[in-house]
Structures are given as C-alpha cells and as structure tokens.
Amino acid sequence: MKEKLKTSQNEHNKDKLDYFDENEENKIINVRKKALNIKTKLEKISSVEVEGAKQVVEKFEDKLRIEWPVLFGENPKFIFVYVDLDSFYASVEMLKNKSLHNVPLAVGGNAMICACNYKAREYKVKAGMPGYIAKNLCPTLLIIKPNMEKYNYYSEIIMGILSKYDKNLEIYGIDEACLSFDKDSLNTAYNILSKKTDLKKKIEFENSCVLFTFENICKIVEEIRNCIFDTTGLTISAGISVCRGLAKLSSKVNKPNGQFCLKNNFQTYLNDLDVDELNGIGKRTKELLVRTFNLKKVKELQENIHLLYLSLKMKTFNMLFRLSYGLSIFDGLRPVSYTSLSKKSINKEYSFKATNDYIEIMNNIYNISKYVSKKMQKNNYLSFLISVKIKFSDFNSFTIQRQCKVPIKTIEDIFDTVIDLLTNHFSDKSIKQKLYESICNVNTIRLIGIKVSSLIKEKNFNLIQKYTNDMVICSERLCPICNLGFFNESNFIFESHVNICLDKQQTEKRKINKTLLKFFKSTNTEPNEKYV
C-alpha cells in the first residue's frame, strides 16, 4: 500500500514537473522568437541610423552625469546602505530549533518554496523553485510550512531598529531595506550608538563632528548589524555605496553575515559582471540580450547600448541603460532629493499548497488584505488602485486591477474589492454564479498576491477635499460625448472637459460636411454599393 502511495505521489510530482518545464520552455521560446525578429530588424538598419543612435546615447550619458555626478568621480552627498537579512524565513525557523542548523531546510510547500538556508543552497536549491524540484535536487531537504506572523514579528523589530538611524528608511520587503546617510544623519546615528557601545574609539572626528567618510559609515553599519544580532539572534548583510543599486550589489559580496563597501572604481567593478548579476535583469532578459546582441558582460552591454536604443522599447532601453551604470529601479531621483521619494505601492504575495478549497483561499486573501492594510495604516496611506495576482498549479497566471472611485485603506475595503474582482473574473455572468461555485471549477490555485498603488498620504487627501468645495464624492458623472467617468473632480474640471469634447465634435462635423461622406450618409447608401 505504501509503495502504491509513493508511486502515485511520484507520478503526481512528475506531472507537476512537466507543467513547470513546459511553462518555462514556452517562455524561453517566446523570447527566442522575439530575439529573431529584433535581429531581422537590426539587419535593415543603416550606418546613418547607428551613428544617430550613438549620439542619442551620448545625450543620455550627459543627463546621467548631471543627475548622478557621484558615479563619475564627484564626492558623494549621500551614502546608501542596503541591508538584507540572511535567508530570513529559514533563519527564523532555525532560531527556535537548534536541531535545524545542519539540516537542508526550506520554507514553503510542495508547489513552491519561498526561502531556504545555506545548507540547502549547497544542493542548488533556491527560493522561487517548486518544492518537488527542490526535493529531486536534495532528497534530504526538510520543507516547513511558512509562519507569516512569526516572520512579520521579527521584521517589525528589525525595521524598527533601522528606522532609528534613518527616519526616511526605504523598506523594499519583509527582509530588505535601504538607509541613506548624509552628514547630519551620520552624526545622529553615531549619537544613538555611542551610548551603547565603545564606538567613540573607532570613529574619526573633525571639530567634534563625525567625519562623513566611507570608513566611518562602515564602522557604524557594523555596530547596527551587531545591535540587530544581539536583539534578535538574526544575522544581516550590508552593502555600502553611492547609490541604491551599487549598494544592493555590494550586499551580496560577503553574504552571509558580512558587509562590503564599494566607494570608487564603479565601472571597473561592473564591467566583468554577467548581465544577469545586475538587479532587474532576469533569465528571460539575459536570454534576449545574449540571443539578439551576444551581450554577456556589463561592459559589452554598455558598449552596444545604442543597438538597444534602435530595437527595444524606450522604457526597456532606459532601464537597461541605467542598470548598466549600477543604478536600481529605486534610484529614480537624485540623491539630493531622496527625502521626497514616496512609496509607490505596497504588495504582498503568498504561496501555498495548490488548492481550490474556497475557505482556504478566502483565509489567504483575508490574511494578505490584513498585512497590506496594516502597512498602509502604519504610514497613513490611501490607495486608488488595487491589483490581484493569481497563479495556478500549471504555472499559468493572470493579474486584474481596478481603479477605485473612493480611496481604500481598511482590511474590509481591500478584501471586498478583491472578492468583487475575482467574482467578475471567474463567475459565469449569464447565470449570476457565485464565487464559491465558480472557483471550484477552475484549476487549483497556488499563489495569491494583492498590490495597492496610486498611494496618497491621508492628510494630503483631506487637504484636497477641504479646498475643493464643489467636489462630488462617490458620485460618477459621465461625459455625454466620450463617456469618460469623473468621480472626485470639481464641476469646473468636468464642465471644461465637456466643452472641449463638444468643440471637437463640431470640428469633426464641419470636416465631414466638406467631404463626399456627407452625401453618402444623407442618402443612406454605402459608397461601394452606389457605384458597383
């Protein structure tokens, strides 16, 4: 009986593996088709166009020198410290159970693992990998179900410690964040730490102020890391550099439980990196760069960036251009104005054992809604756009979103909106099918994600309401010409839009009156019928 069950489980895992492999293979095939089309397009480009593209790239470089002069030799006004907790979920599990320290350990389920310890990584197991594939790589792998409450508890403690040293701490996830130091914040951090440690002996001063140097920041970062370990028992790695992207790259150098400072010769450091070592370039983008342009190293990417300008979308080109200089997607603003950087979105994804059990799915949606709402309320955010992501056991996925008429913030707001979105997506509208009836008929679900964006501070929204006396709340008005919806806009804006639409309509009518189309319309005869 046991052998039959084992055989059945192996066959089930094999079917899942086939789904996964087929899905990954289809993605790569699509990338290769795209690469072939781009290569064909490039063959038709003239030398004049190539020279023109090189001149455009030079202008991009000139703008970058103005925006980020520190990348080209100027002294930094800000120094960024990217911190990343070492195999966070797995480390929390090992914290309370010492017997797990020398065991290959993963956190997640058979469908997907979300973290693994360094022992498991020796077998090439990694986060984002299906659990059954990880088991094939490491038969002794122990997979533990995630405990998000426990992880959130430790994350809150650590982010609380970090925020003492940087009030504008940028939190990118449950286990990663970035601090920004200038002369003032460096002295603030020193004053906090010097009360607890003998830091004074290690730091260089000038006129009783801490010198703004990489060496001093490295010593302060080391003390912050020690403080986190003493408080929680968890280790954290750090990268220190002149922008967020380079700091993140540096954080990987001495993992786990180490730090690395990259203070100069940035391009020399970047040149020999493989393109997919840059944060933001994944497997498919690497495949596209290699297949289309034969670009494997960052140096080759920079030298041939003009070809990308000629063949890729502007958004993709601009992203790859900036990544090649070590910037990250979060380095959108100049360092001198980083305090104005606002959080663009809050999102949370949760993987679990594939299921179409209605109650379990509802519980997961509620827990994610609770997490997102808590983050919003902590920072006093309101949202006007909500997105839901669903992944199935066959690795297909979809994302749906809704622009909200009124701002959302509470658990109930988020949960109700998500349920409504899923009901509209899954249900058969012709028979007014309920979600719990329709969800049982779909493929089993293994991941749910919720994202809120178009964020605005609640106090800012209240000010807008206060000073817009004729604002109509929760009442949709449609333009009678183009049917565009207006929700919270003033009457002046609405009426101005309608007048513009009316003017356009009259202009179009005048144009038609001057053409033969007017004659055909007046006789109710199609042109091709009248003259056949």
TrEMBL record:
<dbReference type="Pfam" id="PF11799">
    <property type="entry name" value="IMS_C"/>
</dbReference>
<dbReference type="GO" id="GO:0006281">
    <property type="term" value="P:DNA repair"/>
</dbReference>
<dbReference type="InterPro" id="IPR050116">
    <property type="entry name" value="DNA_polymerase-Y"/>
</dbReference>
<dbReference type="InterPro" id="IPR036775">
    <property type="entry name" value="DNA_pol_Y-fam_lit_finger_sf"/>
</dbReference>
<dbReference type="Pfam" id="PF00817">
    <property type="entry name" value="IMS"/>
</dbReference>
<dbReference type="GO" id="GO:0003887">
    <property type="term" value="F:DNA-directed DNA polymerase activity"/>
</dbReference>
<dbReference type="InterPro" id="IPR017961">
    <property type="entry name" value="DNA_pol_Y-fam_little_finger"/>
</dbReference>
<dbReference type="InterPro" id="IPR022880">
    <property type="entry name" value="DNApol_IV"/>
</dbReference>
<dbReference type="InterPro" id="IPR043502">
    <property type="entry name" value="DNA/RNA_pol_sf"/>
</dbReference>
<dbReference type="InterPro" id="IPR001126">
    <property type="entry name" value="UmuC"/>
</dbReference>
<dbReference type="GO" id="GO:0003684">
    <property type="term" value="F:damaged DNA binding"/>
</dbReference>
<feature type="domain" description="UmuC">
    <location>
        <begin position="80"/>
        <end position="282"/>
    </location>
</feature>
<dbReference type="GO" id="GO:0042276">
    <property type="term" value="P:error-prone translesion synthesis"/>
</dbReference>
<dbReference type="GO" id="GO:0070987">
    <property type="term" value="P:error-free translesion synthesis"/>
</dbReference>
<dbReference type="InterPro" id="IPR043128">
    <property type="entry name" value="Rev_trsase/Diguanyl_cyclase"/>
</dbReference>
<protein>
    <recommendedName>
        <fullName>DNA polymerase kappa</fullName>
    </recommendedName>
</protein>
<dbReference type="GO" id="GO:0005634">
    <property type="term" value="C:nucleus"/>
</dbReference>
